[in-house]
Amino acid sequence: MAMADWSQLPPELLALIAKRLDTRFDVLRFRSVCFSWRSSFPPKLYPLPTKLPLQTIFPFKYCPEVGDIMIDTIFLVRCPTTTACRVVNVREYTHCAKMRLLKPLLDYEARRLVFKVPKVLDLMNFQVIELGHQFLVLTPNGSPKIFIDKAAFLWSNTNTNDFMMLTLIEHQELCVVSSISGKYESTILRTLTRSFDYFLDIISFKGKFYAIDENGKTTVVDQSVNLSFIGSPGKKHRKKFLVQSGDNLLDVEMIVARDMVIDFKVFRLNEEEQKWDEIESLGDQILFLGVRQSVSASASEFYGVKGNLIFYSSDLLRYSYDYGDSEDVFVFDLDTYATWTFRDFPRIP
After folding, report:
1. Are the beta carbons of 217 and 229 closer than 8 angstroms?
2. What confidence tens digit (pLDDT) does each residue in 170-194 have?
3. Are 69 and 135 in contact (CB under 8 A)?
4. Which residues are CB-contacts of 336 (< 8 A; sequence separation ≥ 6)?
5. Which residue from 13, 124, 226, 294 lies 20 to 30 Å from 187 (Cα-Cα)?
6. Residue 31, phi then psi, degrees to nearest 5
7. What pLDDT was estimated at residue 250?
8. For residue range 277-313, what is the model confidence (pLDDT) as tens digits?
């Protein structure tokens, strides 16, 4: 039986396949197969402006003129011939070709590493899996201080250059920005009931924006900027993280006592009833909670690791130095409630 010639697949079928790819890295692999595959679909880049015109968008007196958009992407790098694997965090800038290697789950550059990183990574010898990404909006150094932090994006299905953006401003206000044919419109959403309340996390999920505050109330913003709300599933004043896990949206709540993490509660969004349902186990999934970015992955992607684990950054704790200066990442087992430093975490043989 003759082997199929994959390069001869019809263009309309190739386009359908490519549209189901979720990450830029998967599209890169797809386009690397042959010339016909490469010409059938463009690189899946996030169409973002090189500079964000902040003064045009945000109605603040001391707003700087422009801001930079950065993309933080978490990759899993595996060596097929050994059991070695690493979680790598890379920061890209839209206004220039710079890239920075960050410490995993942290928000600062990895200047000293405990493992050797080659200057050139031959992707023929490694498997690279994109676990997730996060957008940041930062103002230039020396600009008047206004804290615009995490951002979530949605792109138009008809014009790939049009987008909507939800940003956190000073963690107390949400701003929805629409860019249509290069023209910007913005709407400030003030949904907090008290002046000293604040938002903890935002995310885009299935065509909508979600923002959760410290009291657990979730604000939902659709693409027409209509608002709806989901009641609190857990307790107030816990650290809360919105994480996409497969086709599910999770609210992960960190329980801290005496500056130590003693438990996590995990809730899954019930889209039909618009409520959060508590779940007892993550199953095969592993969660990674970072300073500005949280992702999930299947335990089957790793060597010697089971599911139902949560990796988290020590910087998420107010007094992270109590755990020791040399440790940055911890592992919590939802089955046993045990906590390890990443260095001491026992692998499965």
Report:
1. yes
2. 777 888 888 888 788 888 887 776 6
3. yes
4. none
5. 294
6. -75, -10
7. 97
8. 999 999 999 999 987 889 999 998 887 789 999 999 8
Q: In what order do the strands lie in the sheet with 294-298?
A: 294-298, 285-289, 309-313, 329-333, 339-341
> Which runs of consecutive H residues, i.e. helices, occur in the chain?
11-19, 24-31, 35-40, 54-57
The pairing of strands 339-341 and 329-333 is antiparallel
Radius of gyration of the chain (CA): 21
Give the separation between CA 20 and CA 22, rounded to whole angstroms: 6
pLDDT score of 149 more than 80: no
Residue 267 banded pLDDT, cuts 50, 70, 90: very high
Do 167 and 148 meet the contact criterion of CB atoms below 8 Å apart?
yes
DSSP state letter for 347: P
6 and 27 in contact (C-beta within 8 Å)?
no
Residue that the structure tokens 């590493």 belong to: 113
- pLDDT grade for 331, boundaries at 50, 70 and 90: very high
Distance separating alpha carbons of residues 100 and 230, to the nearest angstrom? 37
Residue with token string 């009291």: 215
Query: What is the spatial distance between Cα 180 and Cα 163, in angstroms, rounded to a whole number?
Result: 7
What residue has token string 């949400």? 174
pLDDT: which is higher, 326 or 288: 288
Among 42, 28, 32, CA closest to 7? 32
Contacts of 297 (CB under 8 A, 6+ apart): 76, 129, 131, 285, 286, 288
- DSSP conformational letter for 346: P
Sheet holding 239-245, edge to edge: 239-245, 248-257, 260-270, 275-279
Helical (H) or strand (E) element with 14: helix 11-19
In percent, the amount of the chain with pLDDT more than 70 equals: 79
Residue keyed to tokens 């010409």: 39
The answer to whether residues 179 and 165 touch, using CB atoms and an 8 Å cutoff, is yes
Number of neighbours of residue 294 by Cβ within 10 angstroms: 26
